[in-house]
Write a structure and sequence with these properties.
single chain; 198 residues; alpha+beta; 2 domains; 6-stranded antiparallel β-sheet; 5 helices
Length: 198
């Protein structure tokens, strides 16, 4: 016979297992990770992976992996206006990622995910000559994030995971063919919430 106390313990244990199953875990070792945790960039899959503190320390010290995973830095730097017209990208919400092989990609959000196209590497170098901070952007794991939609003027160097968060905001809020009325206020809130970090 199950008593009230035993039933309560059973319900609590089930709830604890459900909560544990729903919480995020390290994509390398499956240990639970807190809400604020580090990320690795998987260069093969071109995806961001969640990692626990011990795994992030391994990659921070450069002692793990063969370059397949790169620790995503936390640095955010707000820039003065950067004239990205030289890059030939006709959209106002976009991020530019220098790659380890010297190429540069531009990625913009859409309701289906990120659209990607290659940018002329010489044009990127020309832009970096006018904005020295761009020369320090870490390949694969940092990006120049730009939002000039509706007259806004946001130019940031951000970790690549911020760019993917911005894409997720667009996908979550997009309605119908044109995006609907929720998308741009949500994108503006995303940029308002960015803070500089060393």
């Amino acid at each position: 016979m199950i008593t009230d106390g035993a039933l309560a313990r059973l319900v609590r244990a089930s709830a604890d297992r459900t909560a544990a199953a729903e919480s995020e875990v390290c994509d390398l070792c499956a240990a639970p990770v807190p809400d604020e945790h580090a990320h690795l960039y998987d260069t093969g899959q071109q995806e961001v992976r969640c990692v626990c503190r011990p795994c992030s320390v391994l990659f921070a010290q450069g002692g793990a992996g063969d370059g397949h995973y790169r620790l995503v830095p936390r640095r955010r730097v707000r820039l003065p206006r950067v004239d990205t017209e030289v890059l030939g990208v006709p959209v106002g919400l976009v991020f530019f990622v220098p790659r380890a092989d010297g190429t540069v990609t531009a990625e913009g959000p859409s309701p289906a995910g990120a659209m990607r196209w290659e940018v002329d590497a010489a044009a990127w170098q020309q832009l970096a000559a006018t904005c020295p901070q761009l020369a320090d952007v870490e390949p694969e794991v940092e990006a120049l994030l730009v939002n000039t939609v509706h007259g806004l003027d946001h130019h940031w160097i951000v970790p690549i995971d911020d760019c993917y968060r911005m894409i997720a905001v667009v996908r979550r809020e997009w309605r119908g063919l044109s995006g609907g009325g929720r998308i741009w206020p949500a994108v503006e809130r995303f940029f308002e919430d960015l803070t500089e970090r060393p």
